[in-house]
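**Discrete fold encoding**
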Amino acid sequence: MKTLKSLPCILLILCFNVALSQHKSDESEISKTTDKVKKTNTETKEALSTTKQTIKDIGSIFKSKKEKTKQTININITDVEYGNSSLEMLKNAIKSTKSVKGVTKKFKNNTATFLVEFKKSADELWQNLPVKTKSKFKVLAIEEHSMSITLKNAEPKPDNN
């Protein structure tokens, strides 16, 4: 009879042990899943970092290529007065030419200098200008990255000898 009285306690203890064992098994599964998630996170961060570096490398390759193609054409216009309308017409025509990225104007001793950011040669720049603009100037010299021109109606300066 004593055994029968203690049977509910024994059953209770057995059920408790089974429940505890199952709980520990669940905790173990949760722990394993958590570890897998952490590992996946770490791998994803590493892959993302590698991808970012690859994108930077590819970008730097194309950026350096663009920088190499950029060049400056030096145009000297001799025997011209500052503010001459033909000079301004030339500057505006150059600015509106396709592939011209910028024009800087300098002036000293009746010589205007245009520094033109252009990917092609000085001759190609000259050929792309409107005929009306080109007709006002005479080409004195033209090279790959430079050009020397003067106004067609410019009178030669008297020789002071």
Q: What stands out?
A: The mean pLDDT is 82. Residues 70-151 form a domain with the Gyrase A; domain 2 fold (CATH 3.30.1360). The longest helix spans residues 2-69.
